[in-house]
Amino acid sequence: MLRLLRSNRLQSRKASLPIAAISTSIRLTSTMAGEHEAAILPQPGGPLSVGKRPTREPGPNEVLIEVKAVALNPCDYYQRDYGMPPVPIYPAVIGSDTAGVVAKLGSNVTTVPAPGSRVLAFASSFYQNGSPDHGAFQKYTLAQPEAVIPLPDSLSFEEGAVFPLAVLTAMTAWTTIGIPLETRYTPADKQAVLIWGASSSVGTFAVQSAKSLGFTVYATASAKHHDLVRKLGADAVFDYKDSDIVSQIVSAVQEDGVHLHTAHCVVDGALQPTLDILKETKGDAPAKVAHSPVLPADHPTLDNTLIVFNFPSMDEVVRSKHTKEVFHGWLSPGLQAGEIVPSPNIQLEEGGLRGVDAALDKLKGGVSGTKIVVPL
Length: 376
Hints:
This protein is α/β, with parallel strands linked by helices. It has 2 domains: 8-162 and 344-375, Medium-chain alcohol dehydrogenases, catalytic domain (Quinone Oxidoreductase, Chain A, domain 1); 168-309, Rossmann fold (3-Layer(aba) Sandwich). 27% of the residues lie in helices and 24% in strands. It has 10 helices and 15 strands. The protein has helices spanning 8-11, 74-82, 157-160, 164-176, 201-213, 226-231, 245-256, 271-281, 316-336, 356-365; strands at 31-40, 49-56, 63-71, 97-105, 118-122, 140-143, 148-150, 191-196, 216-221, 236-239, 259-265, 287-291, 305-309, 345-348, 370-375. Strands 3, 4, 5, 6, 7, 14 and 15 form a 7-stranded mixed β-sheet that branches. Strand 9, helix 6 and strand 10 (236-239) form a beta-alpha-beta unit. Helix 4 packs across helix 5 (201-213), helix 4 (164-176) crosses helix 9 and helix 7 (245-256) runs parallel beside helix 8 (271-281). It is globular, with a radius of gyration of 20 Å.
């Protein structure tokens, strides 16, 4: 399978070798002996500063993880700079994407490997009412077991950190528009999907997951990322900058004789051209569009077309079940089989926790076809 960008640090794998009703109260846990370093958000608007936090015992249904690498997402600098998604408690610990080693298991946890095992985890404080005992940007963090899975020995911690939020977002798009994760179309079904923004972090996993569901995948990306998107499983890739991209995709769909009624808009500015394409390809059938950026109130529409903001259920039980299906039901077996690979390309930033704030500035400044990862 595909081997993505590696640095010298990625070569030594074992040496170097994630949304429902928000909880009404912070989970109270007892303090373990000792403290650990954390990149703390002391007040709205940042910046992050490194300080000490008490290391907490995991609750009965939690996992304590020693973090070895973190990956950055746009929502991280939005939380740092604008307090959105909401940050209910300051000082705060933000971030969600981690890979590391299991330090301790809660008494009820049976689905996570034993202490000392290598894992990746979605470790966001967002669903824990902002509890700073959760959150990725610290040396020890608490996570929910449904979002903690083994990290294969074939992958470094840095590679493992790229998966959690992007995978959860990409997979939630399918269920948001009513496509179960156990769906397995066959070529005879001739079901196709359009993924607009396929070289982004979420987009690359939208492509990989679409192939596992059995779709014929039409994707858009900058020309320089076409090879990457094809290697991840896209059947056809188009340059979104082309003035005739709508007619290009419509022609390809018609020539291939498939049914294009489904789309995932991963990036802003994609909805109108996506609807223009669906208008020509869906016929009289209903169409469905998952939209990962926030939908403006005056967004464009199309007759007989469902357009839904991509967001997990606000019911905690439903969300936890979905998260387990994503991580334990899809991602874990896919990683073990080598069918799912880290994507997009990895850009390592140095400095550990002290380097996270500057790395967020680089992400905010703009990257293309790249996931920024900070080893700890």
